[in-house]
Design goal:
Blueprint: H1 3-17, E1 28-41, E2 51-63, E3 68-85, E4 88-107, E5 113-134, E6 139-143, E7 158-171, E8 176-187, E9 201-214
Antiparallel strand pairs: 1-2, 1-9, 2-3, 3-4, 4-5, 5-6, 5-7, 7-8, 8-9
Length: about 220
Amino acid sequence: MSKLVRGIVVATVVAALGFPAPAAAQLELGVGAGLSVSDLGGDDVGDASSSTGLTAGTFLTVPFGGIFSIQPGIYFVQKGSETSDATGTLAFNIDYFEIPVLARLSVPTAGPLGVNFYAGPSFSIQSGCDVSLDDGSSSLSADCDDAAFAGALDTKSTDVGFVGGAGVSVSTGARASLYVDGLFDLGLSSISDATGSPDIKNRSFLITAGLKFKLGA
Protein backbone atom coordinates (compact mmCIF):
# COMPACT_ATOMS: atom_id res chain seq x y z
CA MET A 1 0.00 0.00 0.00
CA SER A 2 1.42 3.41 -0.97
CA LYS A 3 2.15 6.16 1.56
CA LEU A 4 -0.70 8.24 0.10
CA VAL A 5 -3.24 5.44 0.51
CA ARG A 6 -1.95 4.67 4.02
CA GLY A 7 -2.32 8.33 4.96
CA ILE A 8 -5.90 8.48 3.67
CA VAL A 9 -6.78 5.28 5.52
CA VAL A 10 -5.26 6.39 8.82
CA ALA A 11 -6.78 9.88 8.70
CA THR A 12 -10.26 8.62 7.87
CA VAL A 13 -10.29 5.80 10.43
CA VAL A 14 -9.01 8.12 13.16
CA ALA A 15 -11.72 10.63 12.32
CA ALA A 16 -14.39 7.94 12.34
CA LEU A 17 -13.31 6.08 15.46
CA GLY A 18 -11.05 8.35 17.46
CA PHE A 19 -13.45 11.18 18.16
CA PRO A 20 -16.97 10.80 19.56
CA ALA A 21 -19.83 12.37 17.66
CA PRO A 22 -21.49 15.36 19.35
CA ALA A 23 -24.12 14.33 21.86
CA ALA A 24 -26.92 16.01 19.90
CA ALA A 25 -25.93 14.45 16.58
CA GLN A 26 -28.30 11.95 15.01
CA LEU A 27 -26.96 8.87 13.29
CA GLU A 28 -28.44 7.85 9.95
CA LEU A 29 -28.83 4.31 8.63
CA GLY A 30 -29.06 3.95 4.86
CA VAL A 31 -29.90 1.07 2.53
CA GLY A 32 -29.72 1.14 -1.24
CA ALA A 33 -29.06 -0.62 -4.51
CA GLY A 34 -28.16 0.27 -8.07
CA LEU A 35 -25.86 -0.30 -11.02
CA SER A 36 -22.10 -0.73 -11.31
CA VAL A 37 -20.63 0.25 -14.70
CA SER A 38 -17.07 -1.09 -14.72
CA ASP A 39 -14.03 -1.68 -16.85
CA LEU A 40 -10.35 -2.39 -16.31
CA GLY A 41 -7.48 0.09 -16.52
CA GLY A 42 -3.71 -0.12 -16.29
CA ASP A 43 -0.64 -0.46 -18.49
CA ASP A 44 -1.32 -4.11 -19.34
CA VAL A 45 -5.00 -3.86 -20.30
CA GLY A 46 -5.84 -4.19 -23.99
CA ASP A 47 -9.02 -3.20 -25.79
CA ALA A 48 -11.98 -3.76 -23.51
CA SER A 49 -15.42 -2.28 -23.04
CA SER A 50 -17.38 -1.71 -19.87
CA SER A 51 -19.68 -4.22 -18.25
CA THR A 52 -22.77 -3.53 -16.17
CA GLY A 53 -23.44 -5.25 -12.87
CA LEU A 54 -25.31 -4.73 -9.63
CA THR A 55 -24.46 -3.17 -6.31
CA ALA A 56 -26.36 -3.17 -3.02
CA GLY A 57 -25.55 -2.43 0.57
CA THR A 58 -25.96 -0.41 3.72
CA PHE A 59 -24.16 2.44 5.45
CA LEU A 60 -24.11 4.48 8.66
CA THR A 61 -23.69 8.26 8.68
CA VAL A 62 -21.98 9.68 11.78
CA PRO A 63 -22.32 13.50 12.02
CA PHE A 64 -19.53 15.55 13.59
CA GLY A 65 -21.36 18.85 13.76
CA GLY A 66 -22.02 21.36 11.03
CA ILE A 67 -21.71 20.02 7.50
CA PHE A 68 -19.14 17.24 8.06
CA SER A 69 -19.89 13.52 8.56
CA ILE A 70 -18.13 10.16 8.30
CA GLN A 71 -19.98 7.46 6.36
CA PRO A 72 -18.72 3.86 6.62
CA GLY A 73 -20.62 1.16 4.75
CA ILE A 74 -20.56 -2.32 3.29
CA TYR A 75 -21.67 -3.20 -0.25
CA PHE A 76 -21.78 -6.09 -2.66
CA VAL A 77 -20.35 -4.82 -5.98
CA GLN A 78 -20.02 -6.57 -9.34
CA LYS A 79 -17.06 -5.40 -11.45
CA GLY A 80 -15.26 -6.51 -14.62
CA SER A 81 -15.07 -5.82 -18.35
CA GLU A 82 -16.06 -7.26 -21.73
CA THR A 83 -14.39 -7.83 -25.08
CA SER A 84 -16.39 -8.53 -28.25
CA ASP A 85 -15.37 -9.73 -31.72
CA ALA A 86 -16.75 -11.92 -34.50
CA THR A 87 -16.58 -15.03 -32.32
CA GLY A 88 -18.70 -13.60 -29.51
CA THR A 89 -18.41 -11.72 -26.23
CA LEU A 90 -15.81 -12.59 -23.59
CA ALA A 91 -16.74 -11.28 -20.14
CA PHE A 92 -14.47 -11.05 -17.10
CA ASN A 93 -16.61 -10.86 -13.95
CA ILE A 94 -15.31 -10.23 -10.46
CA ASP A 95 -17.45 -9.75 -7.34
CA TYR A 96 -16.48 -7.97 -4.14
CA PHE A 97 -17.71 -7.13 -0.69
CA GLU A 98 -16.57 -3.52 -0.48
CA ILE A 99 -16.13 -1.39 2.65
CA PRO A 100 -15.87 2.34 1.91
CA VAL A 101 -15.10 4.82 4.69
CA LEU A 102 -16.13 8.17 3.26
CA ALA A 103 -15.96 11.75 4.42
CA ARG A 104 -19.25 13.50 3.60
CA LEU A 105 -19.64 17.23 3.08
CA SER A 106 -23.26 18.44 3.08
CA VAL A 107 -24.11 21.70 1.31
CA PRO A 108 -26.66 23.79 3.24
CA THR A 109 -29.87 24.19 1.22
CA ALA A 110 -33.37 25.51 1.81
CA GLY A 111 -36.26 23.09 1.81
CA PRO A 112 -36.26 19.28 1.73
CA LEU A 113 -33.48 18.89 -0.88
CA GLY A 114 -29.96 18.01 0.32
CA VAL A 115 -26.70 17.96 -1.65
CA ASN A 116 -23.72 15.86 -0.51
CA PHE A 117 -20.13 15.33 -1.66
CA TYR A 118 -18.10 12.22 -0.77
CA ALA A 119 -14.44 11.16 -0.74
CA GLY A 120 -12.46 8.42 0.97
CA PRO A 121 -10.80 5.01 0.75
CA SER A 122 -12.45 1.66 0.10
CA PHE A 123 -11.33 -1.84 1.05
CA SER A 124 -12.60 -4.81 -0.96
CA ILE A 125 -12.67 -8.57 -0.36
CA GLN A 126 -13.21 -10.73 -3.43
CA SER A 127 -16.17 -13.10 -3.27
CA GLY A 128 -15.99 -14.57 -6.78
CA CYS A 129 -14.30 -14.39 -10.17
CA ASP A 130 -15.26 -16.03 -13.47
CA VAL A 131 -14.87 -15.73 -17.22
CA SER A 132 -17.72 -16.37 -19.66
CA LEU A 133 -17.90 -16.66 -23.45
CA ASP A 134 -21.17 -16.10 -25.32
CA ASP A 135 -21.19 -16.72 -29.08
CA GLY A 136 -24.86 -15.87 -29.51
CA SER A 137 -26.11 -19.44 -29.53
CA SER A 138 -24.45 -20.86 -26.42
CA SER A 139 -22.34 -19.76 -23.48
CA LEU A 140 -19.52 -21.22 -21.43
CA SER A 141 -18.11 -20.08 -18.10
CA ALA A 142 -15.25 -21.04 -15.80
CA ASP A 143 -13.70 -19.79 -12.57
CA CYS A 144 -10.68 -17.51 -12.95
CA ASP A 145 -8.51 -20.02 -11.08
CA ASP A 146 -9.46 -22.90 -13.40
CA ALA A 147 -6.41 -25.00 -14.28
CA ALA A 148 -7.12 -24.45 -17.99
CA PHE A 149 -5.99 -20.82 -17.65
CA ALA A 150 -2.61 -21.88 -16.19
CA GLY A 151 -2.62 -19.01 -13.69
CA ALA A 152 -3.04 -16.28 -16.33
CA LEU A 153 -6.27 -15.05 -14.70
CA ASP A 154 -5.25 -15.36 -11.05
CA THR A 155 -6.50 -12.37 -9.08
CA LYS A 156 -5.74 -10.99 -5.64
CA SER A 157 -8.25 -11.65 -2.88
CA THR A 158 -8.34 -8.00 -1.79
CA ASP A 159 -8.28 -4.56 -3.40
CA VAL A 160 -7.82 -0.98 -2.20
CA GLY A 161 -9.45 1.94 -3.95
CA PHE A 162 -10.50 5.57 -3.76
CA VAL A 163 -14.15 6.59 -3.91
CA GLY A 164 -15.44 10.06 -4.72
CA GLY A 165 -18.65 11.61 -5.97
CA ALA A 166 -21.85 13.42 -5.10
CA GLY A 167 -25.50 12.83 -4.40
CA VAL A 168 -28.84 14.38 -3.58
CA SER A 169 -31.46 13.51 -1.00
CA VAL A 170 -35.09 14.51 -0.49
CA SER A 171 -36.72 14.42 2.93
CA THR A 172 -39.94 12.40 3.05
CA GLY A 173 -40.75 13.21 6.66
CA ALA A 174 -39.21 13.84 10.04
CA ARG A 175 -37.04 10.71 10.07
CA ALA A 176 -36.65 9.42 6.51
CA SER A 177 -35.34 10.58 3.16
CA LEU A 178 -34.79 9.27 -0.36
CA TYR A 179 -31.33 9.55 -1.91
CA VAL A 180 -29.49 9.09 -5.20
CA ASP A 181 -25.67 8.95 -5.28
CA GLY A 182 -23.18 8.78 -8.13
CA LEU A 183 -19.68 7.62 -7.18
CA PHE A 184 -16.43 6.93 -8.99
CA ASP A 185 -14.65 3.87 -7.54
CA LEU A 186 -11.02 3.69 -8.71
CA GLY A 187 -8.65 0.85 -7.83
CA LEU A 188 -5.25 2.00 -6.61
CA SER A 189 -3.34 -1.26 -7.03
CA SER A 190 -3.24 -4.09 -9.55
CA ILE A 191 -5.77 -6.87 -9.01
CA SER A 192 -3.71 -9.40 -10.99
CA ASP A 193 -1.80 -12.12 -9.17
CA ALA A 194 -0.47 -13.69 -12.38
CA THR A 195 3.19 -14.26 -13.19
CA GLY A 196 4.93 -10.99 -14.04
CA SER A 197 2.49 -8.92 -11.95
CA PRO A 198 0.55 -7.28 -14.82
CA ASP A 199 -0.79 -3.78 -14.13
CA ILE A 200 -4.59 -4.25 -14.14
CA LYS A 201 -6.85 -2.05 -12.01
CA ASN A 202 -10.57 -1.89 -11.34
CA ARG A 203 -12.48 1.21 -12.48
CA SER A 204 -16.18 1.66 -11.76
CA PHE A 205 -18.97 4.20 -11.71
CA LEU A 206 -21.68 3.36 -9.19
CA ILE A 207 -25.15 4.86 -9.17
CA THR A 208 -27.31 3.91 -6.20
CA ALA A 209 -30.69 4.92 -4.82
CA GLY A 210 -32.36 4.11 -1.56
CA LEU A 211 -33.65 5.25 1.81
CA LYS A 212 -32.01 6.86 4.85
CA PHE A 213 -33.48 6.72 8.35
CA LYS A 214 -32.56 8.84 11.38
CA LEU A 215 -31.75 6.77 14.46
CA GLY A 216 -32.37 7.63 18.09
CA ALA A 217 -34.68 10.09 19.72
